[in-house]
């Protein structure tokens, strides 16, 4: 597909990618099926050692960029700074956008008071996805409501969008420490500038809960990094983020087993499958 001119607000899509050859093609295929064509699609390769670059180049509508500084925050910056659209969508390489995602973003940002939005996700490649989806939505709704009451909000990098002018206002303030989740850090700095972030149920995407395949230590490090962001910046909603981290920590074993035990052939949970096969967890963005 060759991207044609978008109607309405121009929406750029930015995908930071590190060793994502197994996921990137499906992500880009979903983008090609949008009812409203994005203005541009930027894949930022962050020193991949697999075929990520080749996959990106196989899609004519992709603008491929490279960021030599290792870390998803640097890759995000590279893509965001290069984006020319009015709105910058931020995805992970395993994000599968709903076909009307760009159209929904255009409608949402027609409200000039909205500076950024984070969407809802559904889960693929896991046993009992309805349980994951319901739990995830409850957590996001809880956080959005509690955090909004104190003038703060969160962003989720697998499904989010930022007004370009809002990014330009905050880009020199964001942090680049590997121990901090870059999406949450961006949300913190936007909140400090009183920029409006909303949770948008109409922005829908599916993802694979790949971090659930991690061993306990990296999984817990990943979960608690969200709280670290809010602690470092002394944000009022730290309490709510910590509550989320506690819940996610307690649920590690069942989450891990439901992910590990998903048999893609039968699309069912199997104890024997969980015991026999080795899962390949996502490379953590916090990894050194």
User: In the CATH hierarchy, what is the class of the domain at 11-211?
Assistant: Alpha Beta
Which whole number gives the mean pLDDT?
93
**What is the CA-CA span between the terminal residues?**
37 Å
Tell the overall outline. globular
Sheet with most strands: strand arrangement: 3-2-1-4-7-6-8-5
Largest sheet: 8 strands, mixed
Can you walk me through this structure?
The protein is α/β, with parallel strands linked by helices and 288 residues long. It has a domain at 11-211: Spore Coat Polysaccharide Biosynthesis Protein SpsA, Chain A (Alpha-Beta Complex). 41% of the residues lie in helices and 18% in strands. An 8-stranded mixed sheet has the order 3-2-1-4-7-6-8-5, with helices on both faces. A two-stranded antiparallel ribbon has the order 9-10. Helix 2 links the parallel strand 2 and strand 3. The longest helix is centred in the middle third of the chain and has 20 residues, at 129-148.
Give me some keywords for this one:
288 residues, alpha/beta, Spore Coat Polysaccharide Biosynthesis Protein SpsA, Chain A, eight-stranded mixed β-sheet, two-stranded antiparallel sheet
In short:
This protein has 288 residues and is α/β, with parallel strands linked by helices. The chain has helices at 24-32, 52-57, 72-82, 101-109, 129-148, 164-170, 182-192, 216-232, 238-250, 252-260, 271-276; strands at residues 11-17, 40-45, 62-66, 87-91, 96-97, 116-123, 159-163, 197-207, 262-263, 268-269.
Spell out the blueprint of helices and strands:
Elements: E1 11-17, H1 24-32, E2 40-45, H2 52-57, E3 62-66, H3 72-82, E4 87-91, E5 96-97, H4 101-109, E6 116-123, H5 129-148, E7 159-163, H6 164-170, H7 182-192, E8 197-207, H8 216-232, H9 238-250, H10 252-260, E9 262-263, E10 268-269, H11 271-276
